[in-house]
Design brief:
GO terms for molecular function: oxidoreductase activity, acting on the CH-OH group of donors, NAD or NADP as acceptor. The chain has 22 helices and 14 strands. The protein is an alpha/beta fold and 492 residues long.
């Protein structure tokens, strides 16, 4: 059954469909960066609220700023912007649900004016973002906005024909100010510490270069709530498409696959209204910091700790690494001994239980989460997910061997060949730069750890960490992943 409005009532009975009338929804949000995670998270919560008979004026208009977004738009448009949420867990039956919270998607390639006009319209009260960790154009070593980037310079020179998020936001906010329309809230849903504060700093830095008065108006009228977002969402594969078709009879060009677990902790700092997401499980708080520290250091940091080692070993799925007892022991030791002592108490969270849940989630075979997905964009992920943990270990004079192994595995992974001799490409926008860092074996330590925007200054200056990195790298190269883990775990 082809997924579209006409066929909604003809889907199998186990498929949940919107209980609200799609014709009764009205747009209240724009989301920039429509992908799997947004659809399994923000769109999922918004759809759940609409199913409760609330928030029908908060449907989502998607924006695509990249050429590759056209296929996503076309797939969604071809099925009336409906898509299937395919929730897969090892212990429970699959949950299949059609989401109707998105009702349009605009592409920058088709002309900037339509996007600016949409952002400037009074109906849009929240603009949300999933633009990846690197999309904020911030230098991780200095914490400053990288205004020199070509795309930023383009938008400063062509303010009414922008290409970047910041160019579009400023063009729209300029129109809203001139028309006396209240500002919107900018809500980051990306996995980075203090994501709202980062979005604010980046947008204000861009605005200051564009128009000083506009900068001041944005600073006074736009809010940027921080959020902790969590749901493992693998890339939708051909196997997932076929599984959905075979088991439930749904022909969906772009379903989204996810785990049963979902969490969203959000600061209640909105300038122009918001959906009542608390009715469907979103936790609002005055300060998201302890939650995001827990999630980023334990979940995202542990993901990096297993992904490059697993890929080098020849595994290609996260659950394969978790089927290997050595990996489970290593990840749990990293969580317990290296990360947990750094965390402040988290209101309402038992950290031991949370870590148990992470092990179970990583072991979920049903979703078949790809290591390639977790490996991607390492040069942007390390400064957010792993380097703060290492830096704190160094500052506190703690053992760094387990954490050094994470970096050593990435260094060897960047060479593009696993221990079985299989070659692979590096999914990172800076792949060429990163691979050049490890091209000369004699200079790897100096070149890799010396990249300040990735590793900062404390790591290359720590003799203990450098020695641990070199031991781990040489061990991986000489005896492989399994023996390296055995040695490491034999000497806790």
């Amino acid at each position: 059954m082809k997924l579209n409005k006409h066929n909604l009532n003809r889907l199998p009975p186990e498929v949940a469909v919107p209980s609200y009338s799609l014709a009764d929804t009205r747009q209240g949000m724009v989301h920039i960066g429509v992908g799997g995670f947004h659809r399994a998270h923000q769109a999922y919560y918004t759809d759940a609220l609409m199913n409760a008979g609330v928030g029908l004026d908060w449907s989502i208009c998607g924006f695509g700023l990249r050429p590759e977004d056209r296929r996503a738009r076309d797939d969604l448009a071809g099925q009336d912007y409906l898509f299937t949420l395919f929730e897969l867990g090892d212990s429970d039956a699959a949950q299949v649900r059609v989401i109707g919270a998105i009702n349009d998607m605009l592409l920058a390639e088709d002309g900037a004016d339509a996007l600016i006009d949409k952002l400037a319209s009074a109906e849009i009260r929240i603009v949300s973002l999933t633009i990846t960790e690197g999309g904020y154009c911030m230098d991780d070593s200095s914490g400053e906005f990288m205004a020199h980037l070509p795309q930023i310079q383009h938008d400063l020179a062509h303010p009414h024909a922008p290409k970047t998020v910041f160019g579009f936001l400023c063009a729209a906010l300029e129109k809203r100010r001139a028309a006396g329309i209240p500002a919107f809230t900018v809500m980051s849903c990306d996995n980075l510490p203090h994501n709202g504060a980062v979005a604010r700093k980046a947008l204000l830095a861009f605005a200051a270069l564009r128009d000083a008065d506009l900068h001041d108006w944005i600073g006074a009228h736009v809010s940027f709530p921080n959020a902790m977002v969590d749901r493992i969402t693998p890339m939708t594969s051909a196997a997932h498409l076929q599984q959905l078709y075979d088991e439930h009879g749904i022909d969906d060009a772009w379903p989204v696959v996810c785990e049963p677990f979902a969490q969203w902790v959000l600061e209640d700092k909105f300038v122009n209204g918001r959906p009542a997401w608390e009715k469907v499980g979103v936790q609002f708080t005055d300060d998201v910091t302890p939650y995001e520290e827990m999630k980023i250091k334990l979940l995202n940091g542990s993901h990096l700790a297993l992904t490059y080692l697993g890929f080098l070993k020849g595994y290609r799925f996260v659950h394969e690494t978790m089927n290997d007892p050595l990996f489970v022991r290593y990840i749990r030791a990293y969580m317990d001994l290296d990360v947990t002592p750094q965390l402040a108490p988290v209101p309402g969270i038992d950290l031991t239980r949370y870590k148990d849940t992470l092990i179970k989630r990583f072991s979920n075979q049903a979703i078949a989460d790809q290591l390639e997905r977790v490996c991607s964009d390492g040069s942007s992920k390390f400064p957010k997910f792993t380097v703060p943990t290492i830096t704190r270990l160094i500052t506190d004079g703690q053992e760094t061997e387990r954490a050094a192994l994470v970096v050593a595995a990435w260094a060897l992974y960047l060479k593009g060949v696993d221990e079985n001799g299989d070659r692979y490409s590096i999914p990172d926008p800076r792949a060429g730069f990163c691979q050049a860092l490890v091209a000369d074996d004699g200079l790897i330590t100096q070149r890799l750890l010396g990249v300040e925007e990735i590793f900062g200054t404390a790591i290359p200056q720590s003799a203990a960490f450098v020695a641990a990195f070199e031991r781990c790298f040489n061990s991986l190269r000489e005896v492989g992943v399994t023996k390296t883990l055995e040695r490491l775990l034999a000497n806790p």
